[in-house]
Amino acid sequence: MQIYKVGGAVRDRLLGKPVTDIDWVVVGATTEEMLAKGFRPVGADFPVFLHPKSGEEYALARTERKSGRGYGGFTFHASPEVTLEEDLIRRDLTINAMAEDDQQNLTDPYHGQRDLEARLLRHVSPAFAEDPLRVLRVARFAARYAGLGFTVAPETLELMRQLSESGELEALTAERSWKEISRALMEDQPQVFIEVLRECGALKVLMPEVDALFGVPQPEAHHPEIDTGVHTLSVLEQAARHKQPLTVRWACLLHDLGKGLTPEEEWPRHIAHEHKGLKLIKAVNERFKAPKDCQELALLVGEYHTHGHRALELKPSTLLELLQSFDVYRRPQRFEEFIAACEMDARGRKGLEQRSYPQADYLRGAANAARTVAVQPLLEKGFKGPELGEAIKRERLKALKAYKEQA
User: Fold this and answer.
1) Residues 187, 291 within the same domain
2) Could you tell me the residue range of the domain that residue 100 belongs to?
């Protein structure tokens, strides 16, 4: 029995990055031997075990063969005869196909270290094309390591292009796709994830609504970058730069989908794109079964982001409707995330990345003014039921009028 550290732990150590998760592969062992040493089995499809003390994952060396469509269409073979090299060749990228023993002696049969130095994301073998999920994974790694100068090798990009055209991407489950998308959006440069997907034709398959934004012009006065797709990438870049949570980043990606529906004869204006985009945002939300908080914020930002930008001009009654739509009294955090998404949208424009956004504090102040309205005095006056609701609304409107006059 020989045990090796494999994959990301080896890659990140060689890159000088912190190592968080460690995966181990065990060569020359049987399931029975692992159980005898106290390892606990967790893998349903193939033999993976948890270490009795550390809880880290140890997998028996295995080979795999394509047996059906999609991510799950594989049969695995694990036995003591499977070599370390055979286990490593089934991995996606050369930089993830290295192993080291307990003395840090490197096993690198597919030149991962060379590709690390060349800053290349290159597939290990033609079997790469058997797993459509790898298109998303490579794009995610491109987003993670773009800051270090990594790019996708041309021959790997070509394989990803072939996969995108093959129909295999449609076989991915919503859960697996979302796992990769959500992780990619939380990388340092999530816009690179979208760029790589677009370059290999996968964006058109997975998110045609986002792909359709490229080449669609906007008024240069508001959008010096002009192209709506380029703007969307810039907004996403700003969201990452400002360390926004996943909910905000997802909303930033989808906020302008309605502009993809504008007839060419109406370009570069996009009248009512906020409302037109809602059905598209809903479709993307449902396609990937995004978490509820991501779905809700994306729809609200899509519908109201121009309200955010015009906050200082809004009538008190419109401001009140906006606050009601977000349920700022019970869900203050969601409104904060809306404000953040609006600010990222304002900054995601060529040359305007450092602009101030006074609307943010103004909206926060409006929410606080509406929240100061006390319900108890209204109850004491005898208001109840629908009448109480109307009375609260009147008082909040009064508070917002006073706030606007002072601002």
Assistant:
1) yes
2) 1-110
Q: Return d(Cα 316, Cα 365) in angstroms, integer.
A: 13
Q: What is the pLDDT of residue 79?
A: 86
Mean pLDDT of 154-168: 96
Is the confidence at residue 122, as pLDDT, over 70? yes
Contact 211, 198 (CB under 8 A): yes
pLDDT tens-digit profile of 6-42?
999 999 999 999 998 899 999 999 999 999 999 999 9
Q: For residue 377, what are its two tokens? A: 């005095």
Query: Strand, coil or helix: what is 59?
Result: strand
CATH of the domain at 57: 3.30.460.10
Distance CA 132, CA 77 (A): 20
How wide is the angle at C-alpha 142 spanned by C-alphas 215 and 4, nearest 5°? 160
Query: Both tokens of residue 66?
Result: 């394509």
Residue 77's pLDDT is 82
Stated as kind and residue range, the H or E segment containing 243 is none
> Largest Cα–Cα distance of the chain, in whole Å?
83
Listing DSSP states for 304-361 in one string gives HHHHHHTGGG--HHHHHHHHHHHTTTT-HHHHHHHHHHHHHHHHSSTT-TT---THHH
Contacts of residue 11, defined as CB under 8 A and 6 or more positions apart, other chains included, come to 95, 96, 98, 112, 116
Same domain (yes/no): 169, 291: yes
Contact 13, 21 (CB under 8 A): no
Task: Evaluate whether 188 touches 147 at the Cβ level (below 8 Å).
Answer: yes
Same domain for 132 and 18, yes or no, is no
Domain count, the chain: 3
Distant-in-sequence, close-in-space partners of 328: CB < 8 Å, separation ≥ 6: 334, 335, 367, 370, 371
pLDDT of residue 107: 97
Structure tokens at 48: 């993976």
pLDDT at residue 66 greater than cutoff 70: no
Residue 325 in tokens: 């739509």
Tokens of 196: 């790589």
Question: From the CA atom positions of the chain, what is the Rg in Å?
Answer: 26
Q: What is the CATH number of the domain that holds 340?
A: 1.10.3090.10
**89 plus 182 within the same structural domain:** no
